[in-house]
Amino acid sequence: MHASPLYEQVANKVQGLIDCRTLRAGERLPSVRSLSREWSISITTVMQAYRTLENRGLVEARPQSGFYVLSSLRTALPEPRASQPSEVPCDVSVPDLAMRILQDTSKPDLVQFGAAVQNPDLLPTRKLHQMLGTMARRHPERGINYSMMPGSADLRTEIARRQVGAGCALAPDDIIVTNGCQEATLLALRAVTKPGDTIGVESPAFYNHLLTADALGLKVVEIPTHPREGMSIEALRYALANHRPAAVLTVSSHHNPTGATIPDERKRQLAELMSEYDVPLIEDDIFGEMNFEGDRPKAAKAFDRTGNTILCSSFSKTLAPGYRIGWIVPGKYHDTIARLKSCMNYGANALAELAIAAFLEEGGYDHHLRRLRRTLEKRVRWLRESVAEHFPEGTRISNPSGGMVLWVEMAGSSNSVCIYRRALAAGITIAPGVLFSPRGEYRNCIRLNAAYADESKEKAVARLGEIVRSEAEQTVSGTT
Amino acid sequence: MHASPLYEQVANKVQGLIDCRTLRAGERLPSVRSLSREWSISITTVMQAYRTLENRGLVEARPQSGFYVLSSLRTALPEPRASQPSEVPCDVSVPDLAMRILQDTSKPDLVQFGAAVQNPDLLPTRKLHQMLGTMARRHPERGINYSMMPGSADLRTEIARRQVGAGCALAPDDIIVTNGCQEATLLALRAVTKPGDTIGVESPAFYNHLLTADALGLKVVEIPTHPREGMSIEALRYALANHRPAAVLTVSSHHNPTGATIPDERKRQLAELMSEYDVPLIEDDIFGEMNFEGDRPKAAKAFDRTGNTILCSSFSKTLAPGYRIGWIVPGKYHDTIARLKSCMNYGANALAELAIAAFLEEGGYDHHLRRLRRTLEKRVRWLRESVAEHFPEGTRISNPSGGMVLWVEMAGSSNSVCIYRRALAAGITIAPGVLFSPRGEYRNCIRLNAAYADESKEKAVARLGEIVRSEAEQTVSGTT
User: Fold this and answer.
1) Residues A438-454: what's their mean pLDDT?
2) B459 shares a domain with B403
3) pLDDT score of A63
4) Range(s) of the domain holding residue B22
C-alpha cells in the first residue's frame, strides 16, 4: 500500500468534518487561502483537495464565491441487506420483461433508468468514429475481410497491456476477441457446462446471465451476497461442497445490480477455492475499470494459478456498445472456446477491432476513463441523494465504489413489476428486482442506471418516488 | 416463364456449335459482321451474344482480331457421382483442420483455394467504407449505441425487399439481424434441437455446420445428394420417417461444397414434406444471389406455408465479410430465437448495419452483384478448365450454376489430407474432403474456392495437379 497523496489526506479530513456535520449542507467551506494558512499546506494542495471533494459529489464550486457543502444525504439511507437466497438449486424463471427493457434503450423519449447501457454523451463518439474512418482508409482490405478468431493481434496486444491494471499477466494469444462481454460469458458457459448442470451465481444476479443459463438448460444455485463485498466466500464453499456446480459465474467488481466489489484479498480466496474444487470460475469484469477512486480493483483472474478462471469483458460500458467488441481469456479451456467461437460467427467486426485498438494505443483512453469515472461518480451520488429525497422512508440504497447502477430496496412489500409498469406509463424505464432472481425474489427491489442521472432528471425521480409511495400504500391497504 | 432475349438465343446456338466441336478450341468465331448477315440479325445482337459467351468463359476477345473459342474442356470432365452416405445417424468427427483453414485466409502469401471466403478484390470495399464513414457522421449516436435485437429497421426493410427475388414475401419484423450467417444457423439449431437429437444434413455437408452440430451435442444423418440437383427428396422422406430428425439443415442453392441447386419445384416438395412431418427446415441461403445466369433461384422458404422453414443468410459473400452482418427469418420459432439472440450478444455492429442498409438502398447493389456474378462465373470456369488440364485422368469436377466453390472427386483412393498438407507446404491452401463428412468420408475429394482463381494461378493449379498425381501413384504403389 502506498500512502495516499497529501491532497487526498486533506480531502478525507474535510470530508470527516462534513460527515460529522461540523460542516453542514449549504455551508461554505473555508476559503482556499485561509485553509492553506491554517493547515500550513500549499494553495495547490487545498485546491486539489476541494476538487476531489467536488468529484466525490460532496461539495460544489460556485463561481466567484467558493466551495459549498451539497445537501449530502449519503449517510442518510442505509445500504441494502445482505442477500439470503434459498440454498436449493432451481430452474430459471425470469419474466420476458428483460427483453423489453433492453429494447426500450432505443427510445429517446424515455428516462433511461432501466437497462445498464452507457449514456452515449459520456463516450468519445466523435473520436472513435474518426478513428474508424482512418482505419478504413488505411487498411481497406483488412476492414472488408473476416477478422478470424482469435481477432486482431493489435487489439489483443492492447487488451493484454491494459489487463496489467487488473493484476493479470496475459499474452495476446491468451485472448480471444468476442462480440461483447455477453457473448464471452455465453462461450464460457457453453464450454464448461451441459444441460441439466447447476451453476453458482450471485444473489441478486445480472438477468442476462440468468437468461443465458436458462437458454442452456442450466439450473442455478444462488450464493448470498454482501452489499459492498459481494459474494460470500463461505457460502460459496458450502455450495461447492454440496451442489458441485459445473461453474460459478461472478461479476466480481462493481457488481450488476448491487455494485459490490469483492475485495482483492477475498478474490484471492475465491480463485484458490475454485481451483481447490477444480470448478471453473467465469468472471464478468465488464465494470472493472469503472472505479470511482484509487486503483482499479484486481480481477480474480489475477490470483488464478491453475487456469480455471475464465475472464470476460468488453468495451461496451467504456467506449462503444454499438461496436460490439469484447474479449475472453479462456485459461485452460482455450481450445474448446476457440472451437466454439470459430463456429459461432468467425469473429468480430474488423474495422471496429482496428478502431478500438488505435484508440487504446493513442486515443487517450486513460484520460477518457478518468473523466468517465468522475462523471459516473457524480451521477451515482446525485441519484442516491435524489432517491433519498423522493422515496418513502425505509428505502435502502447501494453505495457502489464504481460502475453505474444503483440497487434500491424498498420498504415493505412493494411490487416492483407494478412500479415498473406505472413508471413506464409515466415515461421512465427502470429494471424491476424480480429480473435479478431465478425464482422471482427481490420483488421489493429495483435497479436504476445512473448514467443518465443528472439534475434534469429530478422530476423523473420525484415521479418515481410518488409511484413507489402509492404502491407501498396500496400494498398496505390491500393487506388490511 | 419469359422467352429468353434474342441475343441469348443466339449465344446458345453458337455455344451448341462449340459443344459439338463444330467450332473447336482456338478457332475464330465468325466475324460479327458476317454472322449478322448470315443469320439476319443486328450487329448489336451478335455483339451481345458474343459478350455473353465471353462471360460464360467460352470465348475470348482478342483486340483487333475477333472472338476465339477458348480451350474449353467443360464437357471433358464428368461431374462427381451422386453421394450415397450411410443411412445410420452418427456423431460428428471432423478434424481440427477446419479451424486452420479458416485462419489461413489471413495469410496473403498462400494461394487461397481453401476456405470459401470472398476475394476482397471483388467487393465494393471503398464505396462501403465511405458509406460507413458517412453513416458515422450522419448518425454518430446510433453508431455508438447498441443496435439491439432485432437490429436496424432500415436494414431489415432492405433485406425484406431483396428477398422478393427469392420468392419470399417478408415484413421487416420477420427478420432478425445476426453477426453473419453462421450465427443465424447456430441460433436456428439452438432453438429447435437439444443435445442427443439427430439432424439431417446434405452429404457432403459444409464443415462448419457439422462442427456446430457437434458443439451442440447433435448426431447427424446424411442425406444423399445429387451433384446438380442437391438433396434427394426421396431419401429425405425416408430419413424423416425412420430417424425423426429434430431439424434438417440445407444449403439449398449453390451448395457448399457441391455447388448443387435444388430446383424450384423440388424446393416446393421439400418445404411441403417438412411441413408434413412438422420438422423445421433450416435453410442456409448464403450463396442464393450468386447465380451465374437468369433469375436467382427461389428459396425453399418461398414455399413454406406453415412457418417451419428458418431462412439464414448474410452479406459475407457479396459485400463485406468483415462487417459481420447476416440475418435470420425465424418463422414460427421467432420468440425463441429472439430470446436466444438477445442473450447471445444483443445485436450486430451498429454502423455496419447502417452502411449496408445504405448500400442496398442507393449503392448500386444489383450492379455490383451482376459484376460479381460474371467474374465468379469466369473464375469458376477457368478453374474447372485448369483442373481438367492439370489433374490426372479420372478426375471429376462439379459444374455449379452459381456460388464460388468447386467439388473435385479424384480418381482412385487419393488421401486428400495428405494432398492438403503437401499443397500447404507448397504455398497453396485447399479444403480436404474429409471435412465435409461427419465420419471422415470423401477422402478422395477436395473443395476449391474459385474466387481467387485467375490466370495468375495457373502454376498453382499445375503444382496441385502434380501433388494429386504423385499421391495417386503412391497410393497405387502402396497397395501393390
Assistant:
1) 96
2) yes
3) 73
4) 6-69
Whether residue A75 is contained in a domain is answered as no
CB proximity under 8 Å: A 437-466 to B:
none
The answer to whether the CB atoms of A140 and B126 lie below 8 A apart is yes
Residue numbers of A between 330 and 389 with CB closer than 8 Å to B: 338-340, 342-352
One domain for residues B242 and B307: yes
Q: What are A120's three cell numbers?
A: 452515449
Instruction: Answer for the pair A116, A256: CB distance below 8 angstroms, yes or no.
Output: yes
Examine the predicted complex and report whether its ipTM is higher than 0.90. Answer: no
Cβ proximity of B283 and B297 under 8 Å: no
In whole angstroms, what is the distance from residue B205 CA to residue B185 CA? 14
User: Does pLDDT of A62 surpass 70?
Assistant: yes
Q: Report pLDDT for B76.
A: 66
* Boundary residue ending a domain (A327, A344, A365): A365
Residue B477 pLDDT: 63
Structural domain count of chain B: 3
Beta-sheet strands, E only, within A236-329: 247-250, 281-284, 309-314, 326-329
Residues of B with CB below 8 A from A185's CB?
Answer: none
Residues A202 and A338 in one domain: yes
Q: Which residue has the cell 451520488?
A: A381
- Is residue A89 in a domain? no
B385 Cβ neighbours under 8 A, 6+ residues apart: B57, B70, B71, B72, B73, B74
Task: Write the residue in B136, B344, B349 that is nearest to A349 by C-beta.
Answer: B349
Tell me the DSSP string of A51-113: HHHHHTTSEEEETTTEEEE----TTTSPPPPPP---SS-B-----THHHHHHHGGG-TTSEE-
